[in-house]
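Self-study notes.
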Amino acid sequence: MDTKETCRNELRMAIRHLSDRCLYSASKWAAEQLVGIEKDPAKNTPSHTRFQRGSSSVRRRFRTNEVMSTPSAGVSYVSTPSVTLDEDSDAVDSDVYLLAKSYFDCREYRRAAHVLRDETGRKAVFLRCYTLYLAGEKRKEEEMIELEGPLGKSEAVNRELVSLERELSTLRKSRTIDSFGLYLYGLVLKQKGNENLARAVLVESLDSYPWNWNAWSELQSLCMTVEALNSLNLNNHWMKDFFLASAYHELRMHKESLAKYEYLQGIFSFSNYIQAQIAKAQYNLREFEQVEVIFEELLRNDPYRVEDMDMYSNVLYSKECFSALSYLAHRVFLTDKYRPESCCIIGNYYSLKGQHEKSVMYFRRALKLDKNYLSAWTLMGHEYVEMKNTSAAVDAYRRVVDTNPCDYRAWYGLGQAYEMMGMPFYALHYFKKSVFLQPSDSRLWIAMAQCYEKEELYMLEEAIKCYRRAAGCNDTEAIALHKLAKLHSELGRSEGAAFYYKKDLERMEAEEREGPNMVEALMFLATYCKNQKRYEEAEVYCTRLLDYTGPEKETAKSLLRGIRVEKSGFPSMDIEHFPS
């Protein structure tokens, strides 16, 4: 049996196991990967073949260079662990279990737990504990709304955690718990703050049953550093590659993440999930053109997709593609307007229109739907900055960094807010945190450099270092080179200023941009070359300045007259000799 067929059979088995235990998000993930495995076109319907061809075109177009060091076929599949589920896992479910599962599907969690109170099978014990956990979570959310409002801070806790921890710990010690029970035990331990034991329990769960993506996701959330990730002792299995690719992304190792996903495409050639993850990595590398193409292809393949589309809206917002963002907002509104992602997309749409109050309303709605949707807090903070409501912006950004201290956008937002409040020392502190987390983003280096230029700090040497880093990080806004030239000129370093003015001029010519920066560069270079007695270069710059109609034209005429005097040693010709 080849590797593709093995993965296919394992995923089919996993979908059934996960669905039977009401782990529907993990089951959905497994089903998406199952469809993403390349199939023989002769054995599939024409529509499915067309879907696969469309996905493949994007995969081929954006294959990363790092993939070349990885085998093009297959993943790091070693061996399938033996599956030891409870004894009745393959038998017909009991009538009581079917009733409990029906209650669960209707979100009647306590009724489901009650009917399973006398069941002793591992499958039934897991579902009873899981329903109690969800009942506790539901009540916690209700208490949060009752006590502080949907967006307020609250000390509400899941009251089922203590009893669940006690029961699951006893089952683990007596070795009467299965991999799903271990997953739930790890989830409970994580919520109680016992992260080290939670990691160990989740690893134990995944070693015995590696197809539960929910367990991988929880384990990833406990690996916030490279050291924590490397300390894991996981069995080799192709699911581990999915985990590592996702973990690399969260640890901002975007190139490594891209290489892993391209490697996985050796088998999962048409996985929409992998395409979306590739787009996320390229978004963080600010490769917006490629991200846009991938998301367009995803929407063609899956027109009712909402997940991950909020990131697509961020790209459209950054590129100011108003019509495309309007179309996307309309599309998700009709598909499912009460999804957090939909609310964020609509919020971005109103933000681009300049309707910041309405934008905030939709970001708040996203948070009412999912209090852990941190992107909404960050985007709402940006809106408050636009509205000059710095105190509200600071509160929004702090909600993010308190939960996820690795979110560079929130640290950057805090820097902006404190800069607006005239507190550059605080702003610099937060900019440093953001640039540490995302050193490849030129905007962060520029923000830090501008902070160093403030009168309260006036550390121009540090500003120059930051602008140099920005210039080496694909400064699409073309700020760094111009600022480097101006700072060197201000410090009396004419040679350095000329170097950066020339580089900036070459960039503007390549991008066919005109404007005051070009005039400033031409004026400086003309004067500098004349002073250096490089008359031919100076004449070229002066001649280009004669095409302008402002005072720079008269300055160019004067420079040309001076150049001719110095070259000939005779009085200059009448100024009317030059074209007007």
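Second protein, same conventions, sequence then structure:
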Amino acid sequence: MASGPNAHFVDIHPLLDDDNSSSRNKPGKQPMNGPAKFRGGGGGERKPQGHRSFSRQVSLETGVAALCMEKELKGGSSSSSNGKPETKVLPRSGKSLGGLRDGVGVAGGVEACARKGDFSIFRTKSTLTKQNSLLPSRKESELDLQNLEGVAGAGPDDPVNESVSAGRYFAALRGPELDQVRDSEDILLPKDEVWPFLLRFPIGCFGMCLGLGSQAILWGSLASSSAMKFLDVSPYINLALWLLALAVLVSVSITYAFKCAFYFEAIRREYFHPVRVNFFFAPWIACMFLAIAAPPAFAPKQLHPAIWCAFIPPVFLLELKIYGQWLSGGKRRLCKVANPSSHLAVVGNFVGAVLAAKVGWAEAGKFLWAIGLAHYLVVFVTLYQRLPTNEALPKELHPVYSMFIATPSAASIAWAAIYGRFDAVSRTFYFIALFLYISLVVRINFFRGFRFSVAWWSYTFPMTTASLASIKYAEEVPCFFSRALALSLSLMSSTMVSLLFVSTLLHAFVWRSLFPNDLAIAITKKRHSGPRSQGKEKKAVKKAYDIKRWAKHSSLSLVSSITKSNSGDKDSNGR
């Protein structure tokens, strides 16, 4: 044991019940309710000077130890008149939780501490290893875990690590892309603080790559199409757009890769989001757009098959997962989560079919085209009839209806690329897309009065695919009407992309509002409920347990009574 003038010892005495007050006052007994005593190594009792005050009290009523380390304040109110620091005495109650008990409950205190600038709940688990090693090894198992429900990582029912149901997203969120929290909802992160940049960087940023990549394809087609030779479009426009789209794709991919490395829990939340899950197809579709739009100076006329093999497997694996959820049913069945952005999960098949034709693998293109057609029909019918089990889309989600144009337009282009001509099948899908395009244009009010979002870039490539299909149709049916239609649709899509590009630059560098806090990933797994509803839930659970216990005992008593009656019958028959 350490000894010397600088050594200090602590006497810890148990805090007895009020019923034992008589035994405390007996002569010869040391009182048990006094503060901790410090003994110097050399003799009489004294408190250490110039050191941090250390106090510990143990309540035998609950078995919870409260350990308090506090620094000596210079001239503060915590010091007494004689310069000695005040000793913090815990109240004698059922739960010795110190400061957490004063004015707030256990759950409220811990939840407030967890939400005040604590963004580690969404960090990747491997990055928390060093931080967790610095925490005390003692487990606070005596705390009431039911009161801590709703705090991230505070119990077995972790609201961060467990998946959030699709209906919960529809119930808690509103606005474009379901990215705004309703007023009646609570979130796991603070709303009044600016979150880290990676947490504010959504998967929808890949929509910029889709818009720019499709524009590169469009201007390449305008420069090389025989039906649009009267425009005399320079091929350098295609080169400039392709380089810009490549730069944006590389920067967005690197940034999102950092987000995956440091905030993987936020990636999981985006994957469970019923709208954003479809944007996980966007990076690979954007890569295929760049491969299709590659300028002749950088790529040969027929691409290498390795390019197709690099971009299609991720799309195919995602389709196996998402299409399997649509087919098997459950909480994420198609009639529950279907929304216009679900077309992104289908259009990748047709873009992959176009790329397969570019590399010379026509059979692989036919395979992808068949898969895309089957699931497009299912998605189209589901969205059109709007089943009662499907969640209703809010008004702010109307801009995503432009996604209806993308899939039939891409299907017509893919069929023409595989079979070499814009025949009856291609024209059928093109006319479907053209009708949907007109039906959206006449409802222009759908696209007014909404807050700008980066995800709007994803809704520009449907207009571009319709323009590309119009160019193919003008090549097959050369006339004034077809050429005028192709030119007008191309100008509309390019104008829309230009407006979004300028708006993005203004929000990024002038107004600095391009990446607000991504509230959609921070909703709780269940709606926050007050103590009254929690008491009702506990009563319901207890009632269910009592019923189960009663049924078990009733079945046992019934079996025992039947056994006794059978044994009595045997005895009577024997006599």
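Instructor comment on the second fold: The mean pLDDT is 75.
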